[in-house]
Amino acid sequence: MSEIADWTTSAVEEPRRGRRNWVKFAVAGALILAALALFLYSTIRSNAQYFLTVQELRDRATEMVGKDVRVSGVVVPESIFYDAATLHLEFDIVDRDSPSADPVRVVVDGQPLPDQMNDEAEAIVEGQLQPDGTFRAGTLMMKCASKYEAE
Amino acid sequence: MLADVGAIALLLAFAAAVYAVGAAVVGARGGPRDALWTASARNALIAVWPLLTVSCGAMLWLLLAGDFQIEYVASVPSRAMPAYLKAAALWGGQAGSLLFWAWVAGTFSALVMLRKWDADRPLLPYVIAISAVTELFFIGLVIFVETPFSKLGFVPADGSGLNPLLRHPGMIIHPPTLYLGYVGFTVPYAFGMAALISGRLSDEWIRASRRWALIAWLFLSLGLVLGGRWAYDVLGWGGYWAWDPVENAALLPWLTGTAFLHSIIIQEKRGMLKAWNMVLITLTYGLVILGTFLTRSGIISSVHAFARSAIGPLFFGLIAVMSVFSIRWLLLRRDSLRAEHRLDAILSRETAFLLNNLLFLTITASVLVGTLFPLITELVAGEKITLRVGWYNQVVGPQLAALVLLMGMCPLLSWRRASARRLGRAFWLPFLLSVLLVALLALRGLRSAGALAGLGMSAFVGLTTLLEFWYGARARRRSKGENYLVALNQVIVRNRRRYGGLMVHLAVVLMAIGIAGSYFLQQETQATVRRGETLSLGGFTLLYEGLSERRESDELVISEATVSVYRDQQLVTVLRPRRDFYPLSGQPVTIPAVRSTVSEDFYVILVGWEQMGEDQATFKVYLNPLINWLWAGSVLFVVGTLVAAWPDRRARPALVSAYRPSAVIARRTSSA
Predict the structure, then answer these.
(1) Which of A38, B174, B477, B568 could form a disulfide with B226 if both were Cys (CB 3.0 to 4.6 A apart)?
(2) CATH of the domain at A63
(3) Residue B612 contacts A where some CB pair is shorter than 8 Å
(4) Which of residues 88-107 of A touch B (CB under 8 A)?
(5) Which of A17, A40, A99, A60 is nearest to B387 (CA)?
(6) Chain B residues with beta carbon closer than 8 angstroms to that of A8
(7) Are residues A31 and A55 located together in one domain of the fold?
């Protein structure tokens, strides 16, 4: 930010004063940057979550229990259980790169069944792994097919 | 056959662009005969457009005719799709969208070439070279990497079709609008670089390219809003913005582009911020390319699934080359970019503009950090970490609020030196009225602090802006004796840039009201009800009347619920939320039913009934207060931008120093 200050204020006809101003604006710029960095840092700590694949979640299961995690994986269509009356949804997700490995069971409450949830749909869930191995998600997003082409 | 025509046209366009770059470089030497080379380069760049049009036209024809031997056509539309969706397939897939992108860029370049160049002729060869290099990149991609015209060894019976979720008119307008916005920023960037390289660093390049920047910005804004509206109408989650990386990718250049549009005013009026404007337009163009790179390389995980492909590194290369190139010239010319004036006072419009720029940049930095966070943490700590959506609201929300507040004050500050007393006189009435409004809302039971703050602030900013119109009209009425309407119209017409800008500010206020209302006051509920039973939300009662199913065609079965909506025992409306089912693809599409009014949207989604029979159904209901202010604001936004961009008869705005107050002159006679 200091450069802008330099360009705006440095006076061609008053070089000495321009230099003093430059320092002033450099300090102000540094302070603003520091404040922004501190602001971002403090908010990031409370909003960060691990971003894992299904495989990584399985590999690090003991370590991840109870932590905030975002997982993306491919939905296994025949595993979907949905009770519309209570909006209770359960389904398995498998790793995109190793679909034959063990799935993770995801449990979501209070959300309608997404339209996109069918063959080979990819889900992104945010929540915590439970001690019993299921993943309780607060947020469920489906990758939306923005493009015509199948992946 | 037609595919060959398209492919050959592409090759010719590539050749023409290569020639344009070469001839422009020769023309830039500036000798007497070199002007001929520049003229020739210009013709070559213009010729690129019809060639690309032939190529795009061929692709369009192939799509509409359903020539499935072409791999791209087979991968996209199916026979049964309506024609408008087949046409939209042009930008529906990777290769096609790159071709379309090249065409849009070609259109912009050709239009720029056809403008009047009398005054800015020395910039011409550089503008040609930079536009042509951008063209070359995209044409090169569709010739060598993602080839739209390649053929399959066999002819499939039908194409794979478009996901029914995308079968929406939004598919026709949202992507091209965004492309126009993205690509449009090439023009001011090319002018900026031309000014840098040629060393003609007065505000010539800004006057020549401001309108182009404004148009690009308008399309980018529209693209963002249309995307939000489409999500709101179709996806059934009651929201319009999710801070998804793909959305952020389009927002980032919008932020720096908006900062640019503001700070060029300072350069025109005060001869300041020259280097800064170069930085901003370079940053904007860089973010456009970065956005394209992010959304197409699959490097950042998004809820928008994009085809992953090998073009990622190429984009990365373009960003690198462009950055090095721009920074090199910026450094070389840094001495000529010095300001002609200095800041005179802390309380002045210049400072307010600086603060505005600063906020736009800190917001840009925040969104960029959030978007790239998984990438950064993976590089630094070897662990992918993402930030929740809530983080953006927490971090960007307050900064946006500060920006809106500043927006209300800035137009009232004088250039050079503003007086606190005059400001007080301008602000007391709006301030008092907005405090009254907040008190009134609180008395009527509004308890959300965020909503009160947001609405109060919007009212303050909206009123100060409206007062500007009022003062302008009143002054003119007094001096010319016209009635208020005529006076208001004259005031706007005579200073389109200022009042167009103020209209956009008003639009932003309306949008802020919509965002504050729908963000802080949204209510939702869900329930399973039997026929004849009700469900309540926020003073509304929904009565389930029944469900019907009908087969529209072999491709579509519609299940539609009928619900009556009551408020205070009065029937307000009958809504029909439904679910369309496409048996061929097994894809359901939930279509919400909405009752829209100025004060709120009552948004009903049919969630389920299959397991319970038609006597029962489950609904999810959202109450989105004030959301229509967001959409209404967008319309005013477009109108205001057009007013500001409309060609003015006067060629050049007066410099402020030409009519600075005598008191100020007396005090600082030394300054130029």
Answers:
(1) B174
(2) 2.40.50.140
(3) yes
(4) none
(5) A40
(6) 272-273, 276, 339, 342-343, 350, 354
(7) no
CB < 8 Å to B279, chain A: 3-4
Q: Which DSSP symbol is given to A65? A: B
User: How much is the pLDDT for A1?
Assistant: 39
Task: Round to whole Å and give the CA distance between A75 and A44.
Answer: 30
With respect to residue A59, please indicate whether it lies within any of the assigned structural domains.
yes
- Local structure of residue B237 (DSSP, 8 states): S
What mean pLDDT comes out for the span B419-428?
Answer: 82
Rounded to the nearest angstrom, the minimum Cα separation between B5 and chain A is 24
CB B192 within 8 A of CB B207: no
DSSP A113: P
A119 touches chain B (CB under 8 A): yes
Round the average pLDDT of chain B to a whole number and report it: 87
Q: What is the pLDDT of residues B105-121, one digit of tens each?
A: 999 999 999 988 888 88
> What is the full DSSP assignment across B296-359?
HH--S--SEE----TTHHHHHHHHHHHHHHHHHHHHHTTTTT--SS----SSSHHHHHHHHHHH
From CA B630, how far away is CA B225, in angstroms rounded?
9
Share of chain B above pLDDT 70, in %: 93
Same domain, B475 and B390: no
According to the model, what pLDDT value does residue B84 have?
84
Q: How many domains does chain B have?
A: 4
User: Strand, helix or coil at A11?
Assistant: coil
Strand partners, A53: A72
Question: Quick check: A129 and A65 in contact, CB under 8 A?
Answer: yes
Is B87 found in the same domain as B5?
yes
Both tokens assigned to B518: 């729908």
Structural domain of B499: 419-520+630-667
Structure tokens of B45? 């760049």
**Within 13 Å of residue A43, how many CA atoms lie on the same side as its CB?**
20
Instruction: Sort out which chain B residues have CB atoms less than 8 A from A87's CB and list them.
Output: 526, 607, 618, 620
Give the containing element (helix H, strand E) for A31. helix A15-47
> What CA–CA distance (Å, rounded) separates B319 from B288?
10
In a domain, B528, yes or no: yes
Whether residues A44 and B272 touch (CB distance < 8 A) is answered with: no
B556 burial (CB, 10 Å; 0-12 / 13-18 / 19+) is middle
Reduced to 3 states (helix: H, G, I; strand: E, B; else coil), residue A83 is strand
What does the pLDDT read at residue A144? 62
| Type and span of the H or E element at B138 | helix B124-140
| CATH for B370 | 1.20.120
Number of neighbouring beta carbons within 10 Å of residue B44:
22
What is the β-pairing status of strands B578-582 and B540-553?
Answer: unpaired
Same domain, residue pair B223 and B371: yes
Instruction: Tell me whether residues A147 and B590 touch, CB distance under 8 A.
Output: no
B381 and B259 inside one domain = yes
Contact map slice: B 214-243 vs A, CB within 8 A: 235-236, 242
DSSP A90: E
* Amino acid in the structure at residue B469: F
Domain range for A42 is 2-47
Model pLDDT, residue B661:
41
Instruction: Report the chain B residue with the minimal C-alpha distance to residue A45.
Output: B387
DSSP designation for B144: I
First vs last Cα of chain B: how many Å apart? 67
